[in-house]
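Severity: low
Component: inverse-folding endpoint
Summary: output formatting inconsistent between runs
Steps to reproduce: submit the following structure tokens with default settings.
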């Protein structure tokens, strides 16, 4: 009996939709690429390279553009005998201190036999080793620190870009490229670090629908067989992507999800309907993840707001969420948080995009206050809140959504209605 059979009717190369795929050309980023390229030009001229700081929201092509340009730079530098270029690319996710980065760089520059231990040295001696190894390597060394915001102390962000000016290096010309999607990281850099690290700042803005369309078309051509995608699929993925965050990664994921749904159905065309369902499925995953990451009180606050919303009370002020939240907390045998902390949870829900916030003015007295409402599908939220509902009980307002076939389901608590 055959259990596994190839099902390649939809995809020519599904891997082209994966995160680790490096597209041959980048589309819709001409201006930024030009600036970036100009900032790297000194390397080819044999001059001291610029330190570059690249920033922009998630999924806007920062890593892809860096890999793309550095691959070309390496290739083109090879034509010049007097240029000896070394590129070290580090993702700082998991490398949280200057110490870890510095030891990692030392080990990247050394042979297998000469690796150093990643603990036990004073930071100053690790820097000494680093300068020595960089000088031994010589030529031009570009160090890329991607997701640089994971590094939680300043030291290396100052030391590396300044190494040559500080006479730590004689032979090597070093350039640092820092990449981040965390705007507060950039704003919070000390002036000293900022002036050395951000010699050249390049901002990558979010993509609009037209950009995303070009990106998806390029990727779709590699990934799908001809005529598999119906006409509206890519424009729809692009439109959703532009509306959400202008994030290419998210849009490519959506295209892949739509393709997967079509494949599971064993049809040979991907349709608008697959995109819509794919979007729901991805959103469900994101919201679930977001809700799972909340604390118990976060869940109780969300449950309280959800029931008020269903009763038509939203948008609602924090102080009007409070009585229900308190009651739910008591039913769950938890001590309710003070109002301020409860409000923090509402803000967190807003940040996750589960709740919307409206700022209002308090008439003539001039103060402002905030009102909260649900910004997500009720069923979607409830599907991630099973435990909380079990803990507190089924509020009347959600009973239409709760599967009542199950006799073991939590009892409907009638006395909720007067909360
Ligand atoms: N201009 C583009 N042309 C083609 N593909 C692109 C383009 N921009 C982004 N992509 C693709 O979108 C995905 C996300 O891009 P990338 O990883 O570069 O984002 P990022 O800005 O580094 O995001 P993060 O801040 O989350 O690291 C990748 O698969 C990348 O290949
Ligand atoms: Mg990146």
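Observed output (run 2 of 3):
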């Amino acid at each position: 009996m055959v259990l596994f059979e190839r099902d390649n009717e939809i995809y020519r190369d599904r891997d082209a939709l994966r995160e680790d795929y490096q597209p041959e050309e980048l589309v819709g980023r001409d201006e930024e690429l030009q600036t970036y390229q100009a900032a790297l030009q000194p390397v080819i001229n044999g001059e001291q390279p610029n330190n570059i700081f690249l920033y922009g929201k998630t999924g806007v092509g920062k890593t892809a553009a860096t890999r793309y340009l550095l691959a070309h730079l390496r290739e083109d530098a090879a034509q010049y005998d007097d240029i000896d270029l070394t590129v070290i690319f580090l993702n700082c996710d998991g490398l949280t201190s200057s110490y870890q980065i510095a030891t990692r760089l030392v080990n990247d520059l050394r042979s297998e036999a000469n690796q150093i231990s990643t603990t036990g040295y004073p930071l100053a001696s690790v820097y000494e080793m680093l300068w020595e190894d960089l000088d031994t390597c010589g030529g031009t060394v570009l160090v890329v620190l991607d997701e640089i915001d994971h590094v939680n102390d300043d030291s290396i962000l100052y030391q590396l870009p300044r190494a040559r000016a500080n006479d730590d290096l004689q032979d090597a010309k070093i350039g640092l490229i820092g990449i981040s999607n965390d705007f507060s990281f950039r704003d919070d850099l000390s002036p000293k670090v900022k002036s050395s690290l951000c010699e050249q700042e390049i901002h990558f803005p979010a993509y609009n629908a037209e950009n995303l369309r070009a990106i998806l078309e390029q990727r779709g051509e590699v990934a799908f067989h001809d005529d598999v995608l119906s006409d509206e699929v890519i424009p729809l993925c692009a439109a959703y992507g532009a509306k959400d965050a202008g994030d290419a990664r998210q849009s490519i994921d959506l295209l892949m999800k739509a393709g997967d749904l079509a494949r599971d159905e064993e049809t040979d065309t991907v349709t608008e309907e697959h995109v819509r369902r794919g979007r729901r499925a991805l959103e469900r995953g994101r919201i679930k993840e977001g809700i799972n990451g909340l604390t118990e009180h976060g869940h109780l606050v969300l449950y309280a707001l959800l029931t008020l919303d269903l009763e038509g009370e939203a948008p609602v002020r924090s102080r009007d969420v409070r009585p229900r939240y308190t009651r739910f907390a008591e039913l769950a045998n938890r001590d309710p948080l003070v109002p301020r902390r409860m409000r923090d949870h509402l803000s967190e829900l807003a940040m996750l995009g589960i709740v919307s916030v409206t700022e209002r003015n308090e008439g003539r007295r001039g103060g402002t206050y905030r009102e909260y409402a649900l910004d997500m599908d009720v069923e979607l939220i409830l599907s991630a809140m099973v435990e909380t509902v079990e803990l507190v009980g089924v509020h009347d307002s959600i009973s239409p959504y709760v599967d009542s076939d199950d006799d073991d389901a939590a009892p409907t608590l009638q006395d909720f209605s007067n909360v």
